[in-house]
Amino acid sequence: MFNQESRVLDPRKSQSIAFLLTTLDLTTDDVLQALRDGHYEALGVELLESLSRVAPSEEEESKLKSYSDDKLAPSERFLRELLNVPFVFKRVDALLFVATFDSKIEHLKQSFGVIQAACEELRNSRMLLKLIEVVLEIGTKSVNAHGFKLEALLDGGTTLLRSVVENIIESEGIKVLQVVRDLSLVLVDVKKTAEIDYGVLRSDVSKLYQGVQRVKEVLLLSDDEEQECGEFKGTVTKFLETAVKEAKKIETEDGSMLFAVKEITEIFHGDSAKEEAQLLRVFVIVRDFLSILDKACKEMEVN
């Protein structure tokens, strides 16, 4: 059996490589050449991810280099072939980052765009501001406007909000009920932003910068292996020319997004400095408020 033949690698790692070899469309020589030349398109994201996961430990690498072919399982022989490529697993990680860079950039730009749009929705929602004013008048008379926190919108549940909507209907007319209900349809990006994990978003931004830096470090390594790294160096150099520019754009968009969120938080929620750890909380509160508001409107329609 394969597992009995394996002498060097952790069994799970050995099995992963064995499975990889059964699904691989390329020959070992094709893989080695693509890694030498930096042809990440030929390897593909899935293969690069698989290779990244099976990087040997220092002890495993030492044993692989010391054993003869007849003492190694097929998966181990494949791994030893990979080790003939200079700094092969740093290449793998660099090429994986290159291969996924565009999708990472697109994801961040979309996230920033949604958050910016959510800020505009809140800033321009006259009806939401009107509701807050009435909540202040009806439900939070003991709290002055300066000390108002957006959570107060949720404190009274549907009972308070029914009173709020009734108050607005008295001053604006029954047709305003539909306008109130349509808030959920209007504040679409607010609800999308409420679903964004800000901690994950910050981590994604940080990983982008770190990834660019690691690729730069691999490029420096290639300077010492000129004969083995000609095409690889050219591929990585060309990528970095674009990546550095894109990373700077992301830094600018990130800064604009943070400014917009802090500004809208100051307007709706008080001191934004106290909300650093939960910077998108204002959108979560508005989303929950819209849910309660919709329920209150439905109760009014039934009655």
From TrEMBL:
Pfam families: FH2
Domain FH2: 1-303
GO BP, sorted A to Z: actin cytoskeleton organization; actin nucleation
GO MF, any single term: actin filament binding
GO cellular component: cytoskeleton
Highest rank taxon of the organism: Eukaryota
Family designation: Belongs to the formin-like family. Class-I subfamily.
Protein name: Formin-like protein
Species assigned in the record: Brassica campestris
